Amino acid sequence: MAANGISTLGTKQLKQEGKLAIATAKRQGKVVARDGTVTGSTDATKNYYRAANTLDINLLPTKYTGNAITNNANGAVQIAGTGLLSASTSSKIVTGSGTSFTTLTVGTVMTSTYGNFGIGTIASIQSDTQLTLTSNSIVGHASVVWQYLSSSTLVAGRPWSTSNPDTAITVIETSSSGATLILNLDSRNTNSLARSASPGTWYDLTTNHNDATIYGSVAYGTVGGQNCAVFPGGDANYAQCVPNVYFDGNSFTIQSWVYVSAVLNWNRIIDFGRGAGSNNILLSNTYGGTGKPGIYIEGSQFQSTYPGSSTVLLNAWHQICATFTLNTVGNLSQGLAKIYIDGQPYGSGVTGKPVNITRTLCYIGKSNWGNPPDPNMQGGIGAIQIYNGALTDAEMLSNYNTTKSYYGL
26 near 4, Cβ under 8 Å? Predict the structure, then answer.
């Protein structure tokens, strides 16, 4: 379309500026010709309204410089901690930074796949200070929107950018059935994993303090083009969560994002137990040497039905998860276990329920059986989450869809 002359301009910057100039002229009551030429003056019948009705390119989140997109100065005012809150007891510490504003208004606009929940408390935060936010009581997951306060009025239309977009918590924290996160290790979140070659601890983002000590050369880095916890393989390289009752004999969900670099026998994502063959609950990125994920619950085991060869999941990011739903009728000592890959179920089987016991050897990327026979994880782990209940198929897919962009999908 060349009618307004925009398409004939040489750069994206000129086109963006031209569109805003034409829009401003129309809003001010001026005459815009078909070729984009502007004539006339501000409509004097509504002088104040018309004169104030300007569109400033520098108030957009981003603008073009030549053909390159850049953050505006105001759009680059950074907030660390943008993310989700989900229950009346949930809170998040956020930090405002930058010098181009004095006050930030935090509008806790609650939205989720279960509907909208209105506007929560609005508070102000000065630059370079911290504020702890507590959400409204809701079900599901909710977004928290940060907006700039200008002349005592919220600037509408967009949330602020984040100094580290990896700080968002984007999985469901409380499911429709009441299942809640009891372990949340998220390498994208600076509050969970430090940006360091020797992070020392992978911190649990829940209030349960189920932190993982990092051993060997496991470090924050990049695998498959995405930031994550890098597991280089080798017996000395793994992480270990504190002893606790992660599985209490009821339903549960294990959720992970992994990048697998090699098909290694029963290569673990997690193995929580008390030693080899002692109350183990494990999720493996390969059932034996098949290259297909598998789950093992107190001696019962099965593999996924994901199609393709043994290398089909190699060298790419995938969400690998498992749920266990305890029977409520019939044999109450059993339940149905399911494996999910990228939000879709691939295989299920009847297994015995886990024993309600403190598991003392809770490994990430390492087997309780040792090596041999089971080599340590080689690749990357983005996140490990455990729920004290089974998420539904819809909730598993929701979690996949809300996190996949962080892994380039």
Answer: no
Burial string for 90-128 (b: 16+ CB within 10 Å, else e) reads bebebbbebeebeebbbbbbbbbeeeebeebeeeebeee
Class assignment of domain 181-407? mainly beta
Rounded to the nearest 5°, which phi and psi values hold at 255?
-130, 135
C-alpha 221/C-alpha 228 separation (Å) is 6
pTM over 0.85: no
Burial of residue 224 (CB within 10 Å: 0-12, 13-18, 19+) is middle
Whole-angstrom Cα distance, residue 172 to residue 180? 8
List pLDDT tens digits, range 35-63: 778 888 776 665 545 555 666 676 666 77
Alpha helices in 44-168 (DSSP H): 47-52
Buried b (16+ CB within 10 A) or exposed e, 246-276: bbeebbbbbbbbbbbbbbbbbbbbbbbbbee
Domain ranges (residues) in the chain: 6-55, 79-163, 181-407
Segment 122-130 mean pLDDT: 34
What is the Cα 243 distance to its own chain's centre? Answer: 26
Q: What is the DSSP letter of 390?
A: P
Check: CB of residue 79 under 8 Å from CB of residue 146: yes
pLDDT > 80? residue 292 = yes
> Would you give the distance in Å from CA 72 to the centre of its chain?
25
**Phi, psi (degrees; rounded to nearest 5) at 52:** -80, -10
What burial letters (b/e) apply to 169-178, b meaning 16+ CB within 10 Å?
bbbbbbbeee
Distance CA 314, CA 303 (A): 16
